[in-house]
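This protein record is not my work; I was only asked to verify it. Take the sequence as given and treat only the tokens as open to question. I have pasted the whole thing underneath without changing anything:
***
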Amino acid sequence: MELDIQCEEMSPSRWAELLTTMKSCKTIRLDDCNLSSSNCEDLSSIINTNPSLTELKLNNNELGDAGVEYLCKGLLTPSCSLQKLWLQNCNLTSASCETLRSVLSAQPSLTELHVGDNRLGTAGVKVLCQGMMNPSCKLQKLQLEYCELTADIVEALNAALQSKPTLKELSLSNNTLGDTAIKQLCRGLVEASCNLELLHLENCGITSDSCMEISAVLKNKSSLMDLSVGDNKIGDSGLALLCQGLMHPSCKIQKLWLWDCDLTSASCKDLSRLISTKETLTEISLIDNNLRDSGMEMLCQALKDPKSKLQELWVRECGLTTACCKAVSSALSTNKHLKVLHIGENKLGDAGVELLCEGLMHPNCNIQSLWLGNCDLTAGCCATLATAMATKQCLTELDLSYNPLEDEGIRKICEALRKPSCNMQQLILYDILWSSEVDDELRALEESKPEVKIIS
């Protein structure tokens, strides 16, 4: 049994009602419910008396250190079987880390700990690392984003990594680490016995200077499938170094996020080689890099390679125009694996989308999700888009936000939605002006086709 409630103010009567339900729940999720330390005292009792409870999610509540102390009393009881604990943005400080250390040391059932968006600091996380080093700790996932960590944390983290072969996921994004610390961390990861599958280092002050060490991790950890180094200024030279590891035969990368990394079209030669030859790679994000049309054309050529197995490509805000759309269309008509294309916030224009739709409607194309927000589109391309919506049954999600489609364009989209052949499930239309009459048509359409969700 699951209890999943978000963004609800808890009155005393409502809380009492939920406590009865919680006694038999396997999963309890209460994000954004204005909970406090007093609620944690009740939750501690639930943890103690409900041995079937395996997941507790309490993100974005003002629990504070006192609340975590209550929770940990329940977590330390022999009957507790909790596996996943989410305490993101709960107003915790380093004071909570001593209590959590006790849980890590004594509770082998706990495999996931999410404590990001809390002011734990380097001193607090060093204490957590001590708990991880206990032989009883079987932690597999540790999330420490936005925890005000500095370079001084790496020695303690590396010691924990050395002693924790169970660890599979480590997220340190949005902490001020810098190249020296990242190099030290990567050397530790190469030596550690853990089979890390996910490493997130977004916005950690990384430059090209530490990319050789990250590349070494990619070469030496064949278990690593998910790497995110977005929002770091690695540049084209850093990407070239990363690709040495990514192209290594032992690297089995599946998901690669490189958003806002100061890449240009010069990187696209290496990226194209990666896309066309690394058959494990299924998702790549290049959002907010200045790839331009010439870079996108290289990527499209790679997508046409039979060895490419890419399923998701994110190229939003990459300086693209109508000029690259013929190449994108050709890739869509060739690549049978691509299912998600985020190409919004580029100046594609009506002519560009007309070209995209040619590829979209090809029998080989299996696109399910297409994002075209803020692409300078008008009602002029909506008839073609409507045809694609009505004929391409695999297309279930379409984003047309921030385009001046007006009544004429929206009506054409509505005509497609009404057709039985249209399989659209989610249509996103943020910040588009239309009349009250068209608004009525959209609402009526939602009532007649409840399977369609229109977000505006």
